[in-house]
Amino acid sequence: MSTQPHGVLRVIGSDRPGLVADVANLLFRLGANILHADDHIDVEAGLFFQRVEFALGGEVAGADRERLRGQIGQTCEQWKMRWSLRWTDAPIRVALLTSKHPHCTLDLLARHRAGELACEIPLVLSNHPDLELEVTRRGYRYVHEPIQAGEKRAQEQRMQAHLEAEHIDLVVLARYMQILSRDFVAPWSERILNIHHSFLPAFAGAEPYKQAYRRGVKLIGATSHYVTADLDEGPIVWQDVTRVSHRDAVPDLVRKGRDLERVVLANAVRCHLEDRIIAYGNKTVVFD
Amino acid sequence: MSTQPHGVLRVIGSDRPGLVADVANLLFRLGANILHADDHIDVEAGLFFQRVEFALGGEVAGADRERLRGQIGQTCEQWKMRWSLRWTDAPIRVALLTSKHPHCTLDLLARHRAGELACEIPLVLSNHPDLELEVTRRGYRYVHEPIQAGEKRAQEQRMQAHLEAEHIDLVVLARYMQILSRDFVAPWSERILNIHHSFLPAFAGAEPYKQAYRRGVKLIGATSHYVTADLDEGPIVWQDVTRVSHRDAVPDLVRKGRDLERVVLANAVRCHLEDRIIAYGNKTVVFD
Amino acid sequence: MSTQPHGVLRVIGSDRPGLVADVANLLFRLGANILHADDHIDVEAGLFFQRVEFALGGEVAGADRERLRGQIGQTCEQWKMRWSLRWTDAPIRVALLTSKHPHCTLDLLARHRAGELACEIPLVLSNHPDLELEVTRRGYRYVHEPIQAGEKRAQEQRMQAHLEAEHIDLVVLARYMQILSRDFVAPWSERILNIHHSFLPAFAGAEPYKQAYRRGVKLIGATSHYVTADLDEGPIVWQDVTRVSHRDAVPDLVRKGRDLERVVLANAVRCHLEDRIIAYGNKTVVFD
Amino acid sequence: MSTQPHGVLRVIGSDRPGLVADVANLLFRLGANILHADDHIDVEAGLFFQRVEFALGGEVAGADRERLRGQIGQTCEQWKMRWSLRWTDAPIRVALLTSKHPHCTLDLLARHRAGELACEIPLVLSNHPDLELEVTRRGYRYVHEPIQAGEKRAQEQRMQAHLEAEHIDLVVLARYMQILSRDFVAPWSERILNIHHSFLPAFAGAEPYKQAYRRGVKLIGATSHYVTADLDEGPIVWQDVTRVSHRDAVPDLVRKGRDLERVVLANAVRCHLEDRIIAYGNKTVVFD
Hints:
The first copy, chain A, is α/β, with parallel strands linked by helices. The first copy, chain A, has helices at residues 19-29, 62-78, 103-113, 132-136, 152-165, 182-185, 208-215, 250-273, and strands at residues 7-14, 32-42, 47-56, 82-87, 92-98, 119-126, 142-144, 170-173, 192-196, 219-226, 236-243, 277-280, 283-286.
């Protein structure tokens, strides 16, 4: 695997003739060697989506990158496209928010350590002290911000300050068991990923495994989605399910669900970090 | 495979010491050779479930069967258990109810012809004429009972008359697109199986694939359940899902869903025919 | 869904800078409105793959199509790419080869009738007479070409003559239980699809369900692949598996396997018909 | 969940009339309250399998347990059954053998810490020093036994000595990358679990992900099995697969495979610890 940094360009815009050719020509003129290219056209919505991962020959100095960004921006604006360009050597800074359940948090840290997640994780924030030892002895920073009665908003503001101080790009709710306020969520559009322990939209809200047990479903699921102001309603990024039977009581669902949650959240985070997700309306394109 | 008829005993009752031994002793005294035995205990509900499939040496005349039934009944009543006993040479009589979509109906008929479903299918009932040719040229009887404006209840009564005339034991809604009235459903408790084209409880009601598309889920499902007076709320028997992506528009979901629906409904019907299902409350034990 | 015919272009060639832009420019200059575009780069092999589905404004007469074909051909040859161009209103002609097991053959015919497979099926060929009634009463032509002792090659030649007479483009082995000779296979490179009832490369050869039962695997599978001279070794197009347990004897594996085989083969056929498959070496790119 | 210890009885023997009743009567006479009961009959082999989990009212002193064991043994021997009886408060002692890949080892330790695996893990043994820090800072003992050139057997003997000194009941090969000798394996029949990173019997031997990539399969798998003298040939306990495509190069298969391996091995270990597995010949019954 080359260690040379790649650029990742994502565009979304109205689908019109010539657009594909224009983007291709632009990248060619810029000397980009395309490594991966994924297109999608939502015929019904008349939208075009593209993700291109490319390398440039040799080193790409900061000035070159800025010039490139300018040229791409110019083309994209001509076509009235939303776009983003990121370099793989400018890793995303991630904060994990957690409560008491360790499995998602520790799993993400283990994947990070194993090199599976190309990001920095300068901060694990929690409203509980429980996971401090486990997190810190893996070498990560743990900040405990408890919620005092009646001052939930103040705690959110303290968390917000930590996120800003650490220049966080992505917040991952790794079984953070508090509902975040509309004010907290607003500035983080498409930059907060949550794991919900059900196959949404089934069993939104509290205690989904108990709900699933009571309803007698034969499969349980987990869903990772971007967080919006409407609880459990944001754009879905990844889902998976596993089979259960009458032999599985709630603790069995919880145990089986943990394995789902870990993998589903990890896949969503990986796709976000690799700029594979384009959200639009309440949906996502995931180029995986 | 032996062609000798088997007995299938299902029991459900309060879980108490001695119950398992008593049932085992009873079957032993009756000379039953146990072929399959499945137990389940719902610890929370304090309930015991058992399915035993057994053979008796040689022929079992009608009189013997009645005596056996009497003895089993006596034991089960001592323990205040619900029970059923069926012989595999007394096949269940099944009616399919359908509307216009052919896939579930024709799939069940093909499985029946292939010997996969141990039942008789003397009747396919429909509120539309569309599938008549396909059904009759496979050698099955098709009865068209249209719904005239304002006389839905009358049509149900005509259907009910057909079901009675044919001594139907099980009604399978193979994409029957009408909501059955409470009156129609009442006498058929745990004897009507439906296929709903979503992973219930997500996307209950009309046009689940459109709902799924709009919500942007990453998996679609199908659910077979017993029909109760509450639409899409009956005990779930079988569910499965398949992966979808942003590349799948509604027609793709419909196509992928058809394969799910067929297999999910067929599994539910097979389990019912083999007495593998014990429904209790709004849940099922499925000994598969 | 528009009924206007689409063009589908597939290309495969050495991955070089400018190639993507050149193909995009070509299609733009030709006035193509791109409906779907999928690229893939096999970095290790240095190969570029693309499938583009496009519409042209209004009618496209035969002469226009030829001119288009010429221009595309010219560009592709400059880049030394293998390519194909097909129009969706020139449906592929498919022959099914079958023996005695009906499930795959009848399933494909049912999908064809339901409009799920965009092709013509002018011919079902078999070395046995068993399925004649089922096939013909669905309105398809059935030709029985039995294999006499010692004259297997002669039977293949008779089959080959039927395929030629019917201008067949794709041969689907729907549980055809004879091994085809190297001579028969040779002219049909990447145009014969087989269904093998195991998860290849596990359990190649005869009686895979018995092999699976004996080995005690916990999942069984089915594999659809292009047929090459080496039995069960051709490029894999589609695979799927289902869970089994100690409770499943060989007949249960056969029953569960039938559902797999149907869906796996149907997906492979659909992908071939929609020009979604590009085979290279012993592998495939499947743009699904 | 009760903290009162349970007994778990497993029996396997020739299937004969009266056997089920005799076991049920025995447990009833002993005052056992049955919590779970699973039976299986392998009709072809004429074998009966049973797993019964039971509680006795109140405390069960050591002497009572011995008497119970004697009575069960007597009955089982009359029926010439292989049997085992274990108490859930006598946890199994597990050693992990590992090399350099951390994911399975650390995953099992995390599950152990989370209370998901009812066992003791007094020992992690490795032929490499790499994982020492990660293991020890989680509070587990790590012993490094390197393999010097030409003295592999000596290293095995040192490992064997550690296993004996720690009274190990179960050895888990958590990506231990050495082939164990026949002599090492012999005394551990059905007490060594391995994880192989393919869907066996496909891709046995070295580098299965590379083999899978070259063969172009569309699913990759993982298999946990008991280790016998024949490499990758022992009785399979658990398997699972995940979908891959042409977009997945070998490093993607490795990444996706890690998630499979973790879950497959953990399920196999859990089933062993809960006495859910009965191996016979080269197969297993897994009562899950």
